[in-house]
Design goal:
Layout (H helix, E strand, L loop, with lengths): L2 H4 L19 H26 L5 E2 L2 E2 L2 H20 L1 H24 L12 H19 L12 H6 L1 H19 L1
Antiparallel strand pairs: 1-2
Helix pairs in contact: 2-3, 2-4, 2-5, 3-4, 4-5
């Protein structure tokens, strides 16, 4: 019988992930690159939006000073995630990915209304969807999936009994090879 079936129905085991992946862990590189690329684009868009006062379009996207300032703020936050790396960058990417998707849906409903204070056009909505999906992919990379390798910290956190068994088997094998 599986160990999860032995627990009482009212108890939930909290998954504790390593709070900090090693700096050279390959997953951290993916989270950092994702946050950095999106942050760089948003920063450039925001700066060009502020410099192009009087223009309502920057890089083919609708813009105004409010959207430019918001883009700069989000770009800076994504850069902070890039510098921090690890689980923080992954979680930040996922959160901003969800926020971009929600923003796309919200602004899609506000396109032809007086409440469109960010000067969104359909191209901005599509951009919001694409950036949201990209950030979510970057954030979830290596964190979710059915074929995560067993040395993955997220697989180990979700399967502590199997991870412990594998670790003991590897130690036993190392001892038998050393003898």
């Amino acid at each position: 019988m599986a160990s999860h079936a032995l627990r009482s129905p009212g108890t939930r085991r909290r998954i504790r992930l390593d709070e900090h992946l090693p700096m050279d862990h390959r997953l951290s590189k993916v989270y950092r690159v994702g946050a950095g690329l999106m942050g760089l684009f948003l920063l450039a868009f925001g700066i060009l939006g502020l410099l192009g006062t009087g223009q309502h379009s920057v890089l083919g996207l609708g813009s105004n000073s409010a959207l430019a300032i918001l883009s700069i703020c989000v770009g800076v936050l994504l850069f902070v995630g890039m510098v921090a790396g690890g689980n923080f960058a992954s979680t930040l990417n996922m959160v901003f990915g969800i926020l971009f998707l929600l923003s796309g849906f919200l602004n899609l409903g506000l396109l032809d209304s007086n409440y469109n204070f960010l000067n969104f056009g359909i191209q901005n909505v599509l951009f919001s969807f694409v950036v949201g999906l990209l950030l979510m992919v970057f954030g979830m990379y290596g964190r979710v999936g059915s074929t995560l390798p067993h040395d993955n910290p997220y697989w180990r956190a979700r399967h502590p009994e199997a991870a412990e068994w594998e670790q003991r088997a590897a130690q036993d094998q190392a001892r038998s090879e050393g003898s």
